[in-house]
Amino acid sequence: MAPLHLFFTACSVVLGAQALTVSSSAARRHAELAPRVTGCAINPTSTSVPTPCGTSDVAYDVPEKDLYDNIFCANGVDNISNPILLVPGIGAGGDTYTNGYQKLLTNLGYDVCYVSPPRYMLDDEQDNAQYVAYALNMIYSKTNAALPVLGYSGGNAAIQWALTFWPSTRTSAKQFIALAGPFQGTIIGKVYEAGQLDTTTGSIRQLTTGSKFLAALKSKGGDYNWVPTTSIYSHTDDVLQPEPGPNDPSAVSFVGGSRTGNVFIQQFCPGLPVLHSGFPFLNFSYQVTSLALSSSAKFVDPKDVPALNIPCNLDGATGLSTGDVAKVFASTVAAASRVADTVLYGRLSEPDLKSYVASYPDNAVHD
Ligand SMILES: *[C@@H]1O[C@H](CO)[C@@H](O)[C@H](O)[C@H]1NC(C)=O
Ligand SMILES: *[C@@H]1O[C@H](CO)[C@@H](O)[C@H](O)[C@H]1NC(C)=O
């Protein structure tokens, strides 16, 4: 088996240690309103690519049936009310959430939906993003109401890519909550590229510092909030580095913009050794998520975190049993082993950028 220095989902399994706002620069003021969702016809059984919902959206290249069939909702896709969309990390599927956020968010009254793009998000993030964009617009078309979207790890970059290149999703998405999002790329990926660890897959290379994917995301404005955004991250993340101090724009998980709350855990819990695998069950990340969902601003201002009185521990969220937490943790182990076994899928270099990227306007400015 490939060396188990695992990536994007569960390095901490190997390390075994945790079983368990800077606002926009003046140059980038918002100039455009998000285009509306127009004529968003949904054809669940179509084997053609769907027509994008918005006039500024890029084209899909996955057949609509595949996109549609990839959307899973707790009460069925024909019976959605008060939805939230969850997007897993690299190497993972819906199992990341089944025993964790799905339970917690159901208790908050949400109808939990998720996407689980093929090959556990290990392929091209640009394709993963198509699943996210389509799901946001499809669910919106059923309820006529904007819905929150939450991602873990590499899923967050797929969400931000969807919001960047399918502007109609900025109408469909009410807010974005990112648990350990690799928006600026992680240097840890470099370690994998450097030596014998070159079994890294397409999406991992795309989320490594210096990738074409991340440069494109940034140049099109995807390093800023398109919708109210809460980004929660940890100084001691063993997969995403660097994650320096609060409000440091060089952090992997930093998102710019006046509607972003960058929640740096150690600002509130100095020294708390939160690892990457902790985010899908830790009480801290869940309490901040819960505040983001209930806040009228639709994101968490870090100065409102102390009032939550979250104990500085590594416990699972209140509402999850010890067994639930063990199952969520097991899902990160499974994800990690899928990442480790990517040699089975063959070695992939960074996927080429889709042709739409070059022609898409640069720096679509927003706040
Ligand atoms: C629709 O979902 C609700 C829960 O929101 C459930 O009680 C009901 O049985 C579901 N109806 C159908 C037809 O599945
Ligand atoms: C989670 O945080 C809340 C405060 O936001 C606190 O009341 C609760 O006791 C905490 N749960 C655990 C398991 O630490």
From TrEMBL:
Keywords: Signal. InterPro entries: AB_hydrolase_fold, Stereospecific_Lipase. Residues 1-19 form the signal peptide. It comes from the Eukaryota. PANTHER family: LIPASE B. This is Alpha/beta-hydrolase. It comes from Plicaturopsis crispa FD-325 SS-3. The lineage of its organism: Eukaryota, Fungi, Dikarya, Basidiomycota, Agaricomycotina.
